[in-house]
Amino acid sequence: MSNLNTLFHHIGLYAGFELRRLWQTRSGLMTLAATIVIWALLFRYAIVPAADLIASRGFTDFIAGLFGNSGLQQLSRWPAPELAVYWFFSLLLLPLFSLFFTANQLCSDLERGTLRFLTLRSSRTSVVLGRFAGQMLVQGCLITLTLIATLALAAWRSGGLSFEIVNATFVILTNLLLVLAPFTAIMSVFSALVRSAKLAVSLAIVTLGLGFALLSWFIFYFPDFLFLLGYLPGAQVMQLLPQHGWQTLQLALLPLIQSAVLLTLATVLVNRRAL
Fold first, then answer.
1. pLDDT for 25-57, tens place per residue?
2. What distance in Å separates the CA atoms of residue 58 and residue 63, rounded to the nearest whole number?
């Protein structure tokens, strides 16, 4: 039990360090600035005109073509159109951003040799899990900031906040963290293999793209294995898009299992490599 408590204590320390680095370092502040710029553009050109966008015929046809009329009906059931558009764009864009944003979990430590110093007082497992937890906290902070802005916009346009709007905000935050967890864990694996964040991103994109292409080719000749596509990281995104409310958590088990498997692999890789 004492070993387990020590493990969680060290994980908390590493996660807290990642969180402090977001708010107290130049690179962290640059990340915040980049996030503000990206989401300001989305607010200006997507979320602000959300009501008109959802009501327009072109958007209606687009959603109906992707998910059918039932998908459009589910999307329109969000308590605020701003949240519906935020849900739509964040599910599509954030997984890709996560690959770039979380690429440097272990690379810098391996390159500078600081991982050897860190393991003098903690286990390699705690470093891997702590960095992962820290990246999830940082992403959670960034998502929360953009959600607060969306919530303020929705309140301003609708004349106030309601319980349904606040509840929908927590639904979005929870599901986005679940969606991003496997992608963050993927970068734990690739950052344990190489000593450069850029190389980790390139390796992740090539591996994911090649893996999807090979699996698609295999399924083309063996259609009975189509179900395998549903186990890829991010596979639940297309299922989540037309849904709303806490019923979305019925898809939560798969990303949790994927994250656990990938973090186990990352831990094994770090424990086996020479520092």
1. 777 777 778 777 877 777 777 666 655 656 555
2. 9
CA–CA gap between residue 137 and residue 156 (Å, rounded): 28
- Cα(52)–Cα(50) distance, integer angstroms: 5
Q: Side chain identity at 42, as an amino acid letter?
A: L
76-118 per-position pLDDT tens digit: 677 877 888 888 888 888 998 888 888 888 887 887 778 788 8
Place of tokens 């967890």: 181
Handedness of CA 239, 136, 256, 216 (dihedral sign): positive
Tokens at residue 38, please?
Answer: 């990206």
Instruction: Please tell me the distance from the alpha carbon of residue 86 to that of residue 81, in angstroms, as a whole number.
Output: 9
Amino acid symbol at 170: F
Give the separation between CA 82 and CA 78, rounded to whole angstroms.
9
Token pair belonging to 246: 């806490």
Q: What CA–CA distance (Å, rounded) separates 46 from 251?
A: 27
